Every structure is written in C-alpha cells, then in structure tokens.
Amino acid sequence: MHSKWASKMKGVVDGHVHMGGIAGEADMLAIRETAGISKMNLVAIQNPQTGDGLPEPLYMKARHPGTFYVFAGLNHAERISGGRVKTASLAAQVESFVRMGCDGIKMIEGKPTARQIMNVPVTDAYFADYWARVEELGIPIVWHVNDPEEFWDPAKIPGWAKERDWGYGPQDAQKEQLYAEVDAVLRRHPGLKTIFAHFYFLSADLPRATRFLEEHPNVGLDLAPGVEMLYNISRNPEAGREFFIKYADRIVFGTDLFSTLKLGEARFRAGIIFRWLESGDTFRVPDGADFLLGPPEDGIIRGMSLPDDVLSRIYRENFTRIAGSAPKPLNFGAVIEECGKLAAVANAFSGKPAGETEAGRVAKALAGE
C-alpha cells in the first residue's frame, strides 16, 4: 500500500461500518486489516421481512470479542404491517439491546427512503417512550438524517444515487422538514448522545454546522462519506481545517465500509479519508474505488493536514468516550433468544422459513448447533 493511503495513527476506531451476511465473516476481517482499522462499529439496519441486519453484527461481535462494537437498529414490523405482525415496543427493544450487550443504537429513521417505507415523523407519539428511555439510559446513537441536497434535484443527482432510486420529489419528506423534526427531538431530550452520520449533510454550509453544534452540545458528526462532503469542504480547505480543529471533540471517524467490498475498494475508501485528514495533498478519488464514491472526474479533494492531537480525537478518542473504550461483552443467551424472535417475525411477515433467515442461522451457530 502506498504510504499516503495508510493512516500514520495507530488504534483507529471506525464508527460507521456495515456487515452483510455471516458468510462474509472472513471478508470483513480482511477489510479491517487492509484498511488499517483497529476496531469497527457495525451499524445495524434491521429488515423485519427477512430477519437480516442485526443478527450478522451480533455474530461478528460474538466471534471476535473486543474488535466489533454493535449499534442495533430498530424493528418496525408491527407498524409497517399494520399490526398484523407483533413486535416489542421500541422502548422494550432498547431494553433488549442492553441485555444482549449492544453498544448503542443505529437509526436510519430520518433518511427519506426510510420515511417512504414508514411515514412516521420521529416527533410522533410512536417514538415518545423510546426517546425517553434512550436518554435515561445514556445509550449513544448513530443517526442518519437526510441525504445530499442534490438528491432532490433531478439535474444534479449523481448516477450511483439514481441507480438506487435515491432521488426525491415534492411527495417526499423535505430536507428542512427532517431537520426541524430532529431539532424538536433534541429540544425535548437534550441529554441524547447522538452522532449524526455523514456530517449531517451540512458539509456545504459550515456556518450552519457550527450553529447546530453550538445549539446541541451533546451531538457530534461522523465522517462516513457521502463523497460530496469531501468535495464541499475542499472548496475552502482552510475553513474546513479551522472547523475541524475547533470541533475536534465532536467529530467521529467513519468510512461506511461494508463487508461486500473488494479489498482494493476498501483500502481506497478508508485511504481517501485518511489522506484528506492527514495530508496537504490535492487529489481525486482513485480509479478502482467503489461506485458509491463516483468516478475520479467528479471533483477535487484538498487535504487539511490536521494536527496529530486532533487526529487522535477524531480517529479514536471521541467514539470511545461515547461508546466505551472497548466493546461490551455479549450475553449469548440473550442474543440467541433475540435472534429466534427476529426469525419468527420474518416468518410471520413474509413467510420465509425461520431457519433460512440470517437470524435463524446466527441463533443456531451461537447455540453450537
């Protein structure tokens, strides 16, 4: 690996990683090594119809203690099915996450595609007990809210986003509406410890990002690209550097690595963020990067050459201050029980045999069957 693509810092913790099926266990371990990551936070988005999303990160945490944190996603099967499928309340799900030994919660509620599936504002009474319980327990959240503003403009939306049907129109939740809902939640629950994924999609407006951090002292921003974040801040790298130094305690390193990446793609994905933070280079996304980063001709990235003390906080200290210096130990019995429930929910929702779900497979694997 060329030296400028590897971080000079040791003990990097990646606060934003996705795990696919358990068959990708070896791939995830190889990605962690090639990307130069010490510990990973696996953020789980549940698919209640298939039983996927949460069991796989729990499997990795069980198999590799001390290496993987797990932030568990919520299961909305009962709401989505109109009550046909029964699930625990959101507050009860939080209790289950704690029992299992999860380290935090991942929320996709706030991404417009999620809102299309379940059109329930986070200010709705449906979430009220959940917010209160999370605040009471001090559980950290990684929360995806909004998407890049060009997703609402058919003339500007990038090709890779079009492929995923991530373009939005007037019928969808609008960006300012989603931000207003978050502000309302944070006013009601100022003790929430929240990391907003993808820089909260405010990279094009650092003054607004400044106001947001000043108004909400318990929130942070993660750096998982959204490649537009690197391009936006690269338009004025001096202002970006000043912001990152001022808010060095509020920014968390993240890559959005996922277990199905090729090793070269993983190295490039992590490497462009390392290079952007550590060097003063001017460069482009390299050929061979994964398609979500777009082609090299999309834009120029200008490095910020951040000081080592700032880098150490971004790479490790901020996340571990919030989530713990090491991943919590796993309660195997509670995990097996929960995976059994998720497999049953998937079966009731879609008819998929419980034993053919990832939840069912994980339950069997951890029970030694």
Question: What percent of residues adopt helix (DSSP H or I)?
Answer: 40-55%
Name the helix and strand elements from N-terminus to C-terminus, one letter apiece.
EHEHEHHEHHEHHEHEHHEEHEEHHH
Give the averaged pLDDT, no decimals: 95
Name of the level-1 CATH class: Alpha Beta
User: In the CATH scheme, what's the topology name?
Assistant: TIM Barrel
The CATH level-2 architecture is identified as Alpha-Beta Barrel
User: Span from first to last CA?
Assistant: 41 Å
Which strand order do you get reading across the main beta sheet?
8-7-6-5-4-3-2-1-9
Can you tell me the residue ranges where pLDDT is under 50 for at least 5 consecutive residues? none
The overall number of domains is 1
Strand fraction equals 5-15%
Q: How many strand segments?
A: 11
What would you call the structural class? alpha/beta
CATH homology superfamily name: Metal-dependent hydrolases
Overall body shape: globular
Question: How does the major sheet shape up?
Answer: 9 strands, parallel
Question: What does this protein look like?
Answer:
The chain has helices at 25-35, 55-63, 77-80, 90-100, 112-117, 128-137, 159-163, 175-188, 206-215, 227-234, 237-246, 263-278, 308-323, 332-350, 358-366; strands at residues 13-18, 39-43, 68-72, 104-107, 141-143, 194-196, 219-222, 251-252, 257-258, 282-283, 301-302. It has 369 residues and is an alpha/beta fold. It has a single domain (3-366), classed as Metal-dependent hydrolases (TIM Barrel, Alpha-Beta Barrel). Strands 8-7-6-5-4-3-2-1-9 form a 9-stranded parallel β-sheet. Strands 10-11 form a two-stranded antiparallel sheet. The termini are far apart.
